[in-house]
Amino acid sequence: MVGVTAAVLATVAAVRIAVPQQRQPVVQAAATDPDGLGYQRESIRMLTWNICGEAGGSRGSLSYCPWRSRPQAKAAAIETIVRQRDLNVIMLQEVCYPDDAAGRGGDRNDLAPLMAALGPGWTYRTAVVARPDGRSDCRGGDLVGTVGEVVAVRGTITSSTVTPLLVAGDPNYYPDATTKRTSNLLCVRVDGWQNTPCVTHLLHNSDPEYARETASLKQKIGAVALPVLGGDLNTSQGSASTSPIRPLFDAYPECDQQAYAPGDAVTEMTHFNSEDAAPAVAQQKLDYVFATSGFAYCDSLTEFADTNANTAAADDPAALSDHAPVVAFTRGQSLTWKFDETSGDSTADGSVNGLTGTLRNGVTRSTERVHSLRFDGTGTVTSGVDGTINKFDTRRGLTVSLWAKPDTAAPTGSLINQPNNNGSPLDLSYTGGKWRFAMVTADASGAASDQVTATAQTGVWTHLAATYDPVAGRMSLFVNGTLAGTAAHTKRVPSGTAITVGAAYQGGVDDLQLFPYALASAEITKLRAGQTMLPAVPTGTVTIPATSTGDPGCHQNGGYGTVASLTPRLSAAVQDDDPTVPVRGEFSIWDNTDPSQPQPIYLGGPGSASGYVTGSGTVSVQVPTLIAGHSYGWYVRASDGTNVSATAPVCHFVAAAS
After folding, report:
1. Contact 148/126 with Cβ under 8 angstroms?
2. Helices 71-85 and 111-118 meet at what angle, rounded to 10?
3. Which of 61, 203, 305, 342 has the highest CB neighbour count under 10 A?
4. How far apart are alpha carbons 364 and 575 in whole angstroms?
5. H helix count then E strand count, the chain
6. Strand, helix or coil for residue 112
7. Nearest alpha carbon to residue 123 among 604, 516, 597, 590
8. What's the CA gap between 350 and 502, in Å, rounded?
9. What integer pLDDT is reported at residue 594 of this predicted model?
10. What are phi and psi of 40, to 5 degrees?
């Protein structure tokens, strides 16, 4: 566990209330998995799709959009993809969304039926993308509202930013001032996530401004902590070395540049278009996903795209857009059971999947390794089944990591398996004095297994990591960070949806983690080193030196300082025990004069979270307009997306009377 500390310093430089200025981005140097700890972050399982909801034109024209006036059908298709692949992020372009401020939209748009189909637990943010004539309203008829892009997440969005990439009428970009189109980068922070989902829709293609637009995008995304960027980048790639978006390829992995299973295509086409004048279908790759952590999976779902010739005489296609949706999984955790609870019959999942484990029968809690579980041969820990979703697919790459301590007289027992109707396609066990990692060769009862074994010690805590690389067709078993053996495995048998730990096993188990790809040996070394820290690492403390003078924004012992601005900024110094981890401040401020006034900022609420700094630094948030003459209290805590510090002592100030 990474400790987090937030220190609010009693100096004007470090803790200040200031008249608002334009927010400056927290700059983090772009790199490919810069800290090599991508496996510790949550796995983003996302879809990006230009649904062409605001294209115009009739069948046969270049601007024709399949099913433009059927937003419910598009919403149903997206919900199906989300459910079948267990996605937690959706990025959409050319979306008509409701504009509540202008009173436009209601349910006659693409977004309302989608959110209704997704159900509770999802939140979203939107950004406008103007057309060449500067208009941003939907074209009317069946769709009413504002046109732009959307990010929706299965979680709680705590803050968002919309950053222009090109400014309408700017002579530096538009010397002839003939176009007013604008593109934006929309990024969201999600409660408990370290990655930052971002979406964009670039507007140029081959004109000279495209280089400016992509350079602007790279600069803006480089200021985002651990970005996962998806969208329609409006260019055919060529190769990564010659692509117009090479600045992004130079900085981040792109999901579709490698195969994730035997026969998996790379650089798949995502856009299909033609018209009566040129009926041959042009195929291009216009849609991309980039991420700092790299990827465990990527696929262009061409079955949802209109790949037929677009001619006036043709019937409307079954497909829903001229673009194919791209589905991508970033590297990260699929399941994390730390077994840190001290009571009860459940154990929490530290990953974003939220797969709670249930302790059954002969499983007890132990203080070994601070907290762990003991099995007497009759008990198990099982995961709940989330519908028909396979959270950990044995047909794809995978890693199982855990600590085990078999009893001296322990018989054969399974440490972890994932059964289907015919058996267990994956099993890591202790068998007759050996560790055994096995994967079946056929989806049939009694099928043989490919396996790797290694000598085991009883009565000693041992770290085990079992990996499967489907492209190489290779299983590997690591014991205490050292490769103990490999075996060929090419059958790729699907597993069931539930996970079972400890069946017929006698001994201790701790710190189970599952990953949807094969970790490299260097990553396994880091993973094991992180898990050998037996003493619990504190999450940190927050202190403010007691003072009744100095910065008027942070009086603690008697009296209130006076702050001139009614729209100040709250600032604090934050620090994380790991200097490579993005860390932010979360603020809360409330009205002491009239407690019935709503809190303008509260911990975990909208506007609470600051931007990120890496390791340590000063962060701040903008306060909504306060009431002249009222007194206020505020405090802050630090968060690295996984852990939070204690809150700082309360600071006080008075907003100057008008």
Report:
1. yes
2. 30
3. 305
4. 37
5. 5, 39
6. helix
7. 604
8. 20
9. 86
10. -80, -15
Within a 10 A sphere around the Cβ of 485, how many other Cβ atoms? Answer: 15
* pLDDT value, residue 29: 31
Indicate the pTM of the whole model: 0.75
* CA–CA dist 220, 167 (Å, integer): 14
Total number of residues shown for the chain: 658
Task: Give me 650's structure tokens.
Answer: 């309360």
pLDDT reading at 79 higher than 80: yes
Give the integer Cα–Cα distance in Å for 439 and 428: 9
Q: pLDDT tens digits for 437-478?
A: 999 999 999 899 999 999 999 999 999 999 999 999 999 999
Residue carrying the six token digits 């992004």: 248
Rounded to whole angstroms, how far apart are CA atoms 609 and 655? 22
C-beta of residue 40 within 8 angstroms of C-beta of residue 54: no
For range 16-25, the mean pLDDT: 28
Cα separation, 430 vs 178, in Å, equals 72
DSSP string, 172-240: TT-TT-------EEEEEEETT-SSEEEEEE---SSSTHHHHHHHHHHHHHTTSSSEEEEEE--S----T
Q: What is the DSSP string of 358-422?
A: EEESSEEEE-TTSSEEEEESS-EEEEPP-TT--SS-TTS-EEEEEEEEE-TT--SEEEEE--BTT
| Cβ atoms of residues 361 and 380 within 8 Å | yes
d(CA 170, CA 15): 37
